[in-house]
Amino acid sequence: MGAEPDVAGAWGGPSAPGWRVLGQLGAVWLLGSALLTTAIPALGPLLFVGWRAVLVGLLVVVVLAMGLLWLIARSTASVTVLGARPGLWVLLVFVGGLALARLGWRWTDEVGLGVSSDRTLTMLLGGVPHVLVAGLLLRGWRPRLAAGLTLVGLLGLGVVALARSGPGEVAERLRYAAQDRRAAYVVEVPGYRPVDSAYGGELGAGDFVPADPAAVPPARHVNVIAGPVVGDARGECGQPYLDAAPAVESCATEPGGAVYLRGVVEHGYQVTRGDRGVVVLGSLAVDRDLLRRATRTLRPATAVDLPTEERPADLFVVGLPGYRAQPLGIPRGVGYAPADHTGGVASVRVALHVTFAGQDPCFQAACTSEGAGLTYVRREDSHGYVLRRGDVDVGVTGGVAVGRSLLRDAALTARPASEDELLRALPPPPNRDLLDRLRAWLQTRT
What we know:
Layout: H1 17-42, H2 51-75, H3 86-110, H4 119-125, H5 128-136, H6 141-163, H7 169-176, E1 185-188, E2 192-194, E3 203-204, E4 206-210, E5 222-228, E6 250-253, E7 259-262, E8 266-273, E9 276-283, H8 288-296, E10 299-300, E11 316-317, E12 323-328, E13 333-338, E14 350-356, E15 366-369, E16 374-378, E17 383-389, E18 392-398, H9 404-413, E19 415-416, H10 419-425, H11 434-443
Antiparallel strand pairs: 1-3, 1-19, 2-4, 4-14, 5-9, 5-13, 6-7, 7-8, 8-9, 10-11, 12-13, 14-18, 15-16, 16-17, 17-18
């Protein structure tokens, strides 16, 4: 009875506890090295035989390894605190050693030591994890303290090496997002909010829209779509049923037979031309009287009206002063939009874009240099500024309703995103394992 014997100082003869400790640790080291260099690699060729052969081979390795550990535990029972429970000692040394070996294997590969690809290093170090576990189970506080301090020291060194290994967390997220660090710019635009709020607050990259929804002018468009009359079905105002006609809330028949239709988002007129029905529909921001006058000018399209359309005779056009016509895809028809590009969110949208120097920002545009690398760029449907910043061009463009001074100020105040901002905005790569997540955590806090 009393305190457990300390085997660290009892060396004596070959059968003394000190020698049995060395014998136990040496045997455990040999077994651990043999597992990593011989037994486990031998399972690889069995993959060509089948998974059943791999499972049988794995069972044989486990039984042999645990059997040898059992012999070690029985022959050195006096030097371990689990001498009376050799089965538990075997389980802890086998499973704990393999777990630490797997962690150490991956860890050393991550920091560039390449132990897993070097057979000599694997043979020398492969048994160390099993030795550390066995050392923690020895009798006496001195050997347990030594094993514990060694394990903690190795883990500490591993943590430091892991934090300094591989690419930084920002670089990893940029790579996953297919972005270049040099092109990662952000800006705040007064009176606007970013469409993507990943950066937080009013700071953003990409597109911006007015912070006040009321500042967005209503969109104005008109579509002229023709289609065959479907059966004998008639609407509330006697109009033939058309696939292109919207669901209406109300209708009214006007002199001349045109039927006015009003839906939730569109309104306009439906008329019949031969065996076809035609609708002239506009957004609610388009004046009803304008749609009425346009319907009265309805006629079959010609190649002059739609020079890019292969079969213009199947379509109808109208006279709409101040609007520009272009063919529609599905459903087939003709769409009209304001020729001056006003109205809708596109006319007030602002966008930040960064390109590498060498591309011509003045292609199909009118440019005016304002000095110090700043260039005003004007296109038919937009305008903005491009500022040369080292090897990139920082551009801020806006719709035709956006003030020129606002775009100029935004181009001058745009700046590279900080690391903290990129970490907030960019998502981490998926499918990370424990070490990847630990390294990311360490790198963002050191």
